[in-house]
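testing teh design pipeline on a random one, pls ignore if ur not involved
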């Protein structure tokens, strides 16, 4: 079987690298890129390109703290007992491995996950707003916050802390 010419092999290699770069990291219950569920708060802060801001004030920061990685980019992480337990995105551009991101219709979640989807009423919005939970492993999954138009407005990924409605509450 003939081998491809070096020029074709180089072009194929470059196309593969572009595809990998274009897809980038995905948001999963395991983390997002360098930010991993279960890593220490100190490692998460050290790995950030800028010092994360505390997004919430709590009575006991050792119990629970929410950090904003970049307010303009819409990504936050939550720590409990100094371990990352949840990552939240509020803007498009952070997709799950299945391609779901903020701005997508809730129907996409239902179509992809079917019977795994658990629906709860949205705590601060009227129907048809809802929260859709998808558990992919015991105590690890997603919460998709869906607005009154049926559009995903936030995605939370991680441990059971995805159930926390107001940051650490």
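output:
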């Amino acid at each position: 079987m003939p081998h491809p010419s070096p020029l074709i092999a180089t072009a194929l290699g470059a196309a593969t690298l572009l595809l990998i770069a274009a897809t980038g990291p995905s948001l999963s219950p395991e983390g997002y890129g360098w930010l991993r569920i279960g890593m220490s708060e100190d490692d998460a802060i050290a790995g950030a390109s800028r010092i994360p801001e505390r997004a919430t004030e709590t009575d006991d920061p050792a119990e629970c703290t929410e950090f904003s990685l970049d307010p303009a980019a819409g990504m936050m992480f939550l720590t409990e007992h100094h371990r990352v337990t949840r990552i939240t995105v509020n803007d498009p551009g952070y997709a799950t491995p299945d391609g779901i991101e903020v701005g997508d219709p809730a129907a996409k979640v239902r179509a992809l996950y079917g019977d795994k989807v658990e629906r709860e009423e949205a705590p601060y919005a009227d129907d048809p707003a809802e929260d859709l939970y998808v558990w992919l492993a015991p105590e690890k999954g997603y919460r998709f916050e869906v607005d009154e138009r049926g559009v995903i407005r936030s995605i939370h990924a991680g441990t059971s802390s995805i159930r926390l409605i107001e940051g650490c509450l």
